[in-house]
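Hello forum,

I keep getting stuck at the same step: I have a sequence, I want structure tokens, and every attempt I make locally crashes halfway through. Rather than fight my setup again tonight, could one of you with a working pipeline run this one for me? It's a single chain of 124 residues.
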Amino acid sequence: DSLNAEDWHLHEPVTESSPDTIYDQRWALLLLNRALLGLKEEYEAAGKHQSYEVLSEFLPGGRQQLTYRQAGESMGIATNAVKVAIHRIRRRYRELLRREVARTVSDPSEIDVEIRYLIDVLGR
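Reply #2:
Ran it on my machine without issues. Output:
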């Protein structure tokens, strides 16, 4: 609150990226976070909060500190069932991400192009 408008830029991280790239990266992260939030809400609505907490580690950007065996033990399921659950949560995450991207394009044929651009932007 003590900063005036002219001083705000001094507290921004120094980067070589252009303002357009920064904007696109923030946009991409927003879409990813919306998809992740939707996924979390679905799991919680189904009463699977603990499963989400464990399985979300295996999603892109997750910590993935657990092995499949450890994940299975914490969820009370076999390792093979963990593999299936991870496959399903990743697939549902992709579906939700596609839905979020679809909201940003005027033509459904542009979805795949936008997703490729999203991946490119995040890789910069």
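The CA atoms of residues 40 and 53 lie 9 Å apart. If your local run keeps crashing, start a new thread with the error log.
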